[in-house]
Amino acid sequence: METPDENTELIEFFVNSLLSWYYQNGRNFPWRETRDPYRILVAELMLQRTKASQVVPVYLEFIKEFPDVLSLSRASPERIREYFSRLGLEWRAEKVLALAKILAEKYEGRIPCDRKELLSLPGIGQYISAAVLSFACDVPVAVVDSNVVRVLSRYFGVTPKGEGRRDRKILGLASKILPKHSHREYNFAIIDFAALICTPKKPKCKRCPLREKCSNKLL
């Protein structure tokens, strides 16, 4: 029996439909208007468990005060905590400062575009490292969180085991279908699609461009 990652027709329809939808309906955020690794890293650190609309004003003020790694590395823990507490993420403040100091001392203020090096840094896990690589470094890596897992599992009919974003089958599928030449747009597309159409509760199936081939039983 053919598995989802072997069904080229299903994959092509998914990717093409998703990208077409994104070009017409994708959201616009300040961190998407840059390829600066530092700014993208800051955004991703703030976006953890936080709505993007809430992050925008805090992000803009933060970048204005700390425009680069070196300025951030000299900040006081209290000042960083003030920003992150506005997002309910005050617990991240110490890691953010520790991260900035390492980047300033070891990398001369640069953000490494290497998965292994990124993962060795405080506060950076699989998702943030993938986001930095795809959005800033132009490395074709699938960005996978619980929202992306929801879209993939519904459309392809794959049931993740345990924590979906760590499930090998889901991660393998996400990597297999990733369009190498438009990975950045695709990753933005599936994130936005999960937020606007394929929502956790009451997904907007009637407006879904994937409906024709989606395996979701709600259809």
From TrEMBL:
GO molecular function, one term: 4 iron, 4 sulfur cluster binding
Protein family according to the UniProt entry: Belongs to the Nth/MutY family.
SUPFAM superfamilies linked: DNA-glycosylase
InterPro entries on file: DNA_glycosylase, Endonuclease3_FeS-loop_motif, Endouclease-III_FeS-bd_BS, HhH-GPD_domain, HhH_base_excis_C, HhH_motif, MIG/MutY
Protein name: Adenine DNA glycosylase
Domain HhH-GPD: 46-196
Organism name: Thermococcus cleftensis (strain DSM 27260 / KACC 17922 / CL1)
Cofactor: [4Fe-4S] cluster
Keyword list, A-Z: 4Fe-4S, DNA damage, DNA repair, Glycosidase, Hydrolase, Iron, Iron-sulfur, Metal-binding
Superkingdom, taxonomy of origin: Archaea
Record's catalysed reaction(s): Hydrolyzes free adenine bases from 7,8-dihydro-8-oxoguanine:adenine mismatched double-stranded DNA, leaving an apurinic site
Enzyme class (EC, first level): hydrolase
EC number: 3.2.2.31
One BP term from GO: base-excision repair
